[in-house]
Write a structure and sequence with these properties.
2 strands; two-stranded antiparallel ribbon; mainly alpha; 1% strand
């Protein structure tokens, strides 16, 4: 009998390619405010501006205060926290194809409303419209990542799982990197409104990728004879299943939350931090340096994924990432070492963290409840990031959009990042202790180094499909 396309190795990589494109545009849009922080906080008008060496002493923009600017990131995080729990459950109940259409559409709608809000600068409608846009955008993007991870886990569990997660992250970060390299120049030429609409266009491309990957997923499921099985298993999923999630899962979630509390809030304000603390950096140069976090991640994600697939030891890597991140914020807080050193360093540890922490979740929870587990993990992560953004806004403290923030305030912010990293070290160490006492699945070596790294000895935690532990063998 001829082998079906979905049973061949290349098919899952075709699925992976279009799956990766789902979030390319939305990640580009997410950090546009970071690159254009001066424009978002710039003056509404510059009637008496002067130029020194071709640089204006007044930046015309939307007139937001630092507190309002950080609120754009906080509301994104808070919306994710509220929406992704239910989103994960709905994906488990209604399937990937439902989720990928709905949530990719929300990213398009949210980015459109956000761009529309920029046309109302100087009015009372600016902030409400832009916050509404970020709310809708956050509802879609965080949930879309859950669908993306769920598809990746299904097609690659027991195979190149960390590589697949690494490539997914790399494509997402490609959007972030291109944002940091291109957005400032695009804004200089076309203005902030058209720049935001350009981001919306990229989200539309993501929507077309959603149509493609959902078709591939549907065809592949039918060829593998999995459609009816997954439909049957989805009927067994209940909200109360959350109570059955193991301790290792909760420790993983806390480790992820504390690590990301130091990454995203830092990147959101990094451009202004570099300009305020260090001398000789233009806004564009500061944006490039801040974007080095994502540059490093883009370059390293696939290689790091291959390494972790080859070696295993995910729990050990999680601890190492947290420990090696400590010097990053110490350098930024207490020294004047060039900031590029710290942002590249953070990008390296971020790459290892993403490739070791997130792919560990499918190893300790059942496939049938993976959407719910991913949604809950994303929710807790976003609660932490949202709180961190608000804390950072309060630490930086100024109500004026054009005042240089004192270095001592930036130092306090970095100390707050250090505190989160220390908490990450604590939770990751406890995670390794619990994992060792259980079955050591997170730190098992791979086949290539001597022992399997595919599933836990406890089927209640890691069976590919509830009631069908052997189904994963159908995919090569």
């Amino acid at each position: 009998m001829a082998e079906k396309a979905a049973e061949k190795g290349y098919y899952r990589f075709v699925v992976l390619f279009f799956n990766c494109l789902l979030t390319f545009g939305s990640y580009f849009c997410f950090d546009i405010p970071s690159v254009l922080q001066e424009q978002f906080q710039g003056n509404l008008t510059c009637p008496n501006t002067t130029k020194v060496n071709g640089t204006s002493d007044c930046v015309e923009g939307l007139g937001m205060t630092p507190e309002q600017y950080n609120l754009l990131y906080a509301i994104y995080a808070w919306t994710n926290a509220l929406v992704v729990i239910m989103a994960g459950f709905l994906i488990d109940k209604l399937g990937n194809r439902f989720g990928v259409f709905l949530f990719s559409f929300l990213t398009v709608l949210g980015s459109s409303v956000f761009a529309l809000g920029s046309h109302f600068k100087g009015t009372q409608y600016l902030l409400p419209l832009m916050l509404t846009g970020r709310l809708l955008f956050g509802s879609g993007n965080g949930s879309l990542t859950i669908v993306q991870n769920r598809m990746t886990a299904f097609w690659f569990k027991g195979k190149e799982l960390a590589l697949a997660f690494g490539l997914t992250l790399a494509f997402s970060r490609l959007g972030s990197v291109l944002n940091f390299f291109l957005t400032h120049s695009f804004e200089n030429r076309f203005g902030i409104q058209w720049t935001l609409w350009g981001g919306t266009f990229l989200c539309v491309l993501g929507f077309f990728s959603a149509i493609t990957v959902s078709t591939l997923d549907k065809v592949g499921m039918k060829q593998l004879g999995m459609d009816d099985i997954i439909l049957e298993e989805s009927k067994k999923v209940h909200v109360k299943d959350v109570r059955r999630l193991p301790l290792r899962y909760w420790l993983l979630v806390l480790t992820i939350m504390f690590f990301y509390n130091g990454v995203f809030p830092f990147v959101a304000d990094a451009s202004k931090f570099i300009q305020d603390k260090y001398t000789g950096y233009s806004q564009q140069q500061a944006s490039y340096i801040a974007g080095a976090v994502y540059d490093s991640s883009l370059v390293l994600s696939a290689a790091v994924g291959i390494l972790i697939d080859f070696v295993g030891l995910r729990g050990v890597f999680a601890v190492a990432c947290a420990v090696l991140t400590l010097p990053v914020f110490a350098l930024l807080a207490f020294t004047f070492v060039p900031p590029l050193v710290s942002t590249i360093w953070l990008g390296v540890t971020y790459s290892f963290a993403a490739a070791s922490m997130w792919p560990s979740i499918p190893l300790v929870v059942p496939q049938a409840t993976l959407g719910t587990a991913m949604g809950l993990a994303t929710s807790i992560q976003m609660i932490g990031i949202g709180i961190s953004n608000l804390v950072v806004g309060q630490i930086l403290g100024t109500k004026s959009s054009d005042v240089k923030i004192p270095v001592w305030r930036w130092q306090q912010m970095m100390i707050f990042m250090l505190a989160n990293t220390i908490c990450c070290i604590i939770t990751s160490v406890i995670l390794n202790i619990v994992d060792r006492r259980k079955d050591g699945i997170l730190n098992k070596l791979t086949k290539r180094t001597g022992r399997p790294d595919q599933a836990s000895d406890d089927p209640s935690e890691t069976s590919p499909l509830l009631g069908n532990p052997d189904q994963s063998r159908t995919i090569n």
